[in-house]
Amino acid sequence: MASNQSAQDVLGDKQLRTIAKVLVQKVKANTAIDRQIKESAQAKLRVIVKRILNEFGYPPDQAKITTELILLQTKVLAEERSEEK
Predict the structure, then answer these.
(1) Rounded distance between C-alpha atoms, residue 11 and residue 56, angstroms
(2) Can you give the residue range of the structural domain that contains 12?
(3) Long-range contacts of range 52-58, CB-CB < 8 Å, 24 or more positions apart?
(4) What are phi and psi of 3, to 5 degrees?
(5) Which residue among 4, 16, 58, 67 has its CA within the 20 to 30 Å range from the CA of 26?
(6) pTM of the model
(7) Tens-of-pLDDT digits for all 85 residues of the chain?
(8) Comparing C-alpha atoms, which of 40, 26, 15 is closest to residue 73?
(9) Distance of alpha carbon 35 from alpha carbon 60, whole angstroms
């Protein structure tokens, strides 16, 4: 998110940190500890991420890319959690 220059210009670092914290909380609460996140879970997370970005006024020019990046990071997190077990 921070690599998006328009987001930095509009929101600033403090607001981006707040968005990141909210996203992490919501994603962790909605991520199944599974080898691979199922399509229905991905769709639910995609909606959650988009809503949060919209709620905080995240610039729409990079919102889709940011959403996909967050979903990719979610998959990595789920894999790490499953390996810890």
Answers:
(1) 9
(2) 5-84
(3) 52/19, 52/22, 52/23, 52/26, 53/19, 56/11, 56/15, 56/18, 56/19, 56/22, 57/10, 57/11, 58/1, 58/7, 58/11, 58/19
(4) -80, -10
(5) 4
(6) 0.69
(7) 555 666 666 677 788 888 888 988 887 777 655 545 577 778 888 899 999 999 998 888 888 888 998 888 887 877 776 676 5
(8) 26
(9) 31
Place of tokens 């959650």: 48
How many Å from the N-terminal Cα to the C-terminal Cα in the chain?
30
Map tokens 């968005």 to a residue: 19
In one-letter notation, the amino acid at residue 9 is D
